[in-house]
Write a structure and sequence with these properties.
heterodimer, A: five-stranded mixed β-sheet, B: alpha/beta, seven-stranded mixed β-sheet, five-stranded mixed β-sheet, 14 helices, 38% helix, globular
Chain lengths: 389, 392
């Protein structure tokens, strides 16, 4: 069944990956199995399900879908994107060295610099849009490469196939956070990366109503190790959240298409405002002027629905946040509602100011995740907010 | 709060939603929360960091355990792994030697890769605990009663040793719950729970809880919970609170049933040994009675012949053969094959987890039905064994 599903087109895969029917009842939605434990028919023959942390049918359906969508072998669902990422970081051990992209999500930065560093794991941050910087940072004990593309919040694009090739050449495990694009727009395993991680809270879930994470890999030995860690560390996603996640996935394509179209329009309008001197900068890989535009076109099927722009100062950023009427001013992204965030105090509050400023995440930078509202309304709203800011 | 435990349990989540007066705490699914202005927050920003439903649960467990703050995790193992995040490269831990297999696996297979070592000792032997202390020892991790052989550790005594040496004491209170045992009141620093068990109580939610005794520890544990991110989802938080409301009623019945079943097993010719702190000859019973308010609902028993295990498990009609414990339904577990499978055989047998040991989580069914089910299974198994090994 899974093999057949892999040949389907994407819109169909989102709906038909083995999750669509409950064989016992024919139910159109996967049942929510709340059971924490499962009766063992035969004490000496292991069954598919024993204990819900080790395996749960609702979670298994979601994991199967995610594996198919990313063209992986196996997927693992977690209680949050950070639980997914930290579990992957447990693949490494004392004495290992990692290389990570420098404008990485603040939560991942915090985990690398304040949690796993205490286990004797060191990280070097480099601008991975320049592959030579990756090469230059490799040491004899380097074991992993952590990427985000496009990055958060500056939407910098890394040549994923190029980075994966360097990783392979040096025996590094390559990991990419695919949250911003989702497998609908970018499939890093096909580009040669080893592991994909997601905050499923964002576009995959898509409704700002479930906190979840996912890890997908292709290599079977690696999948076995990831399963061991998921079960041993226990940061699994609960069955009701798995159901909500799966439910959100069904509309991923239509949501992302609409949001991306909106983002293109908002970005184009912001670029015009930049030319008029109303804002300092706009960052969106879908703009032809974006430095990563060409690579993004090669390695992905779209540009996503997140953009950021710099209004020059904290004062103006503050005024804009107070004056916008439509977006939710909040952390997170990828929901049906447009969300405006201030990286300095939100997503990147885990990063010390000098590190943040060094990465170009200035005090006037705002991140804008385009939802499903009409783009004309979003633009009019930004226009009135900028006029007064 | 001076109310009795039963009252505090029944009132969990009540008076937490002044807007509507809802008795049952609402399930907040929102992942993110609007900010009134920059730099202003409702107190909630992002659900991994803080969620109103989870906060209600966390406040409840903190209050029940007598700590300053509670933390809810996706599973008991996520809770324990979160607590172990307190330690780093070069640290050493002292751990009860017959503890839950999942904790054992974490300590043996994951912590060493982070440069954290551990010594397993019988924490029931305070001298052995003292002898295991090294210059880099940071904490003592205790289960009492242990899983599955119900060994008792004298908490006050071990905690005194820990204090003397500046070590943290962490107690897994899953088997007892705060209804029966409150380790923080005895001076422990951290309590952990697999709330999947008695606290949830219905075999329908996977969850872990941690309670810290001091604001300093709470701050650090909060940092780790948020950074590692293995938090409990809001719907599961709600289910867990719903379960906790009836903890006192359930535990009373679990315990009464366990006492009856333990006594019945103790006199059965095919049973060589019963481990239950409510039995008069149970090792450490006096200590247990001093530090806890009851013997709980868990017992283990050893069969006179380990070949009886398989036919018994096949013959039980009512008692379900499944991992886990603490639910309203009785569950039987075969520790050497299930919960303790990750512990090497030699070590496992040394701590009493033999191939003939079965663990019984006594549910809230009528005790006579449970005994009848065990009686017929033991009888069927014996008949099968006699057929297999004819005399002469």
């Amino acid at each position: 069944m899974a093999d057949h599903n892999r040949t389907l087109s994407y819109a169909t895969k989102l709906l038909h990956t083995g999750n669509e029917l409950d064989p016992t009842t024919g139910a159109s939605a996967i049942p929510i199995y709340q059971a924490s434990t499962f009766h063992q028919e035969d004490p000496f023959a292991p069954q598919a399900y024993e204990y819900a942390r080790s395996g749960n049918p609702t979670r298994a359906a979601l994991e199967r879908t995610l594996a198919v969508l990313e063209n992986g072998t196996q997927a693992f669902a977690f209680g949050s994107g950070m639980a997914a990422i930290t579990t992957v970081l447990f693949l490494f051990s004392q004495g290992d060295h990692l290389i990570a992209c420098d404008d990485i999500y603040g939560g991942t930065f915090r985990a690398l610099t304040q949690v796993v560093n205490r286990f004797g794991i060191e990280t070097t941050f480099v601008d991975t849009t320049d592959l030579e910087q990756i090469r230059a940072a490799i040491r004899p004990n380097t074991k992993g490469l952590l990427l985000e593309s496009p990055s958060n919040p500056l939407l910098k694009v890394t040549d994923l196939a190029g980075a994966a090739a360097i990783a392979r050449e040096h025996g590094l495990l390559s990991i990419v956070d695919n949250t911003f694009l989702t497998p609908y727009l970018q499939r890093p395993l096909d580009l040669g990366l080893d592991i994909v991680v997601h905050s499923g809270t964002k576009f995959l879930g898509g409704h700002s109503d479930v906190v979840a994470g996912a890890v997908i890999a292709r290599d079977e030995v690696l999948c076995k190790r990831l399963y061991f860690l998921q079960n041993a560390l226990g940061g699994v996603l609960g069955p009701q959240d798995c159901f909500l996640f799966q439910r959100g996935l069904k509309t991923l394509k239509v949501r992302l298409e609409a949001s991306e179209a909106g983002a293109q329009q908002v970005a184009a309008w912001l670029a015009e405002q930049q030319r008029q001197g109303r804002i300092e900068a706009v960052y969106y890989p879908g703009l032809p002027t974006h430095p990563g535009h060409d690579i993004q076109r090669q390695q992905a099927d779209g540009f996503g629905a997140v953009l950021s722009f710099d209004v020059g100062s904290e004062g103006r950023a503050r005024q804009l946040m107070e004056r916008v009427q439509l977006p939710l001013v909040a952390v997170s992204l990828g929901g049906v509602e447009t969300i405006l965030s201030y990286p300095r105090t939100m997503s990147h509050s885990g990063m010390p100011a000098p590190e943040r400023l060094k990465r170009g995440i200035g005090d006037g930078l705002l991140r804008y995740s385009v939802g499903l509202e009409d783009p004309a309304d979003l633009i009019a709203d930004l226009d009135q907010a900028l006029a007064r800011a | 709060m001076s109310n009795h435990m039963e009252t505090r349990l029944a009132q969990i989540g009540n008076r937490r939603d002044p807007q509507t007066g809802a008795i049952s705490s609402p399930i907040h699914l929102s992942t993110t929360y609007g900010h009134p202005r920059l730099g202003e927050s409702t107190g909630f920003d992002y659900t991994r960091t803080k969620n109103p439903t989870r906060t209600t649960l966390e406040a409840a467990i903190a209050e029940l355990e007598g700590g300053v703050q509670g933390f809810a995790y996706a599973s008991g193992m996520a809770a324990i792994a979160g607590v172990f995040g307190l330690f780093g490269q070069g640290d050493h831990l002292i751990v009860s030697h017959d503890l839950y297999g999942g904790t054992y696996r974490l300590i043996e297979q994951i912590l060493p890769r982070q440069g954290i070592s551990a010594t397993f000792v019988d924490t029931g032997d305070t001298a052995a605990v003292t002898a295991a202390i090294q210059a880099n020892t940071r904490a003592i991790f205790i289960e009492t009663p242990t899983n599955p052989t119900m060994r008792i550790t004298d908490l006050a005594q071990v905690i005194a040793v820990a204090h003397q040496h500046g070590l943290l004491t962490i107690v897994d209170n899953t088997f007892m719950t705060p209804l029966l045992q409150r380790p923080l009141a005895l001076g422990a620093d951290i309590v952990v729970h697999s709330a999947t068990k008695y606290l949830g109580g219905h075999n329908d939610v996977l969850a872990g809880l941690v309670v810290a005794a001091t604001p300093e520890l709470a701050e650090r544990l909060y940092f780790l919970q948020n950074s590692i991110g293995a938090t409990l989802g809001p719907q599961d938080c709600w289910l867990l609170m719903r379960g906790m409301k009836t903890l006192a009623l359930r535990m009373e019945r679990h315990q009464a049933n366990a006492q009856v079943v333990a006594q019945w097993l103790a006199q059965h010719p095919q049973v060589s040994r019963v481990y239950y702190p409510g039995l008069p000859d149970h090792a450490g019973r006096d200590i247990h009675e001093r530090q806890a308010d009851g013997a709980g609902g868990m017992l283990s028993f050893e069969l006179a012949d380990e070949r009886l295990v398989e036919p018994i498990l096949r013959s039980l009609h009512l008692i379900t053969f499944a991992e886990s414990l603490g639910g309203v339904e009785s569950l039987i577990t075969y520790p050497s094959r299930q919960t303790h499978f990750d512990i090497p055989e030699e070590q496992r047998i040394a701590v009493g987890v033999t191939n003939g040991l079965l663990r019984l989580s006594v549910g809230i069914e009528h005790p006579h039905d449970l005994i009848a089910d065990l009686a017929q299974a033991l009888q069927t198994a014996r008949a099968w064994l006699e057929e297999e090994t004819p005399i002469g």
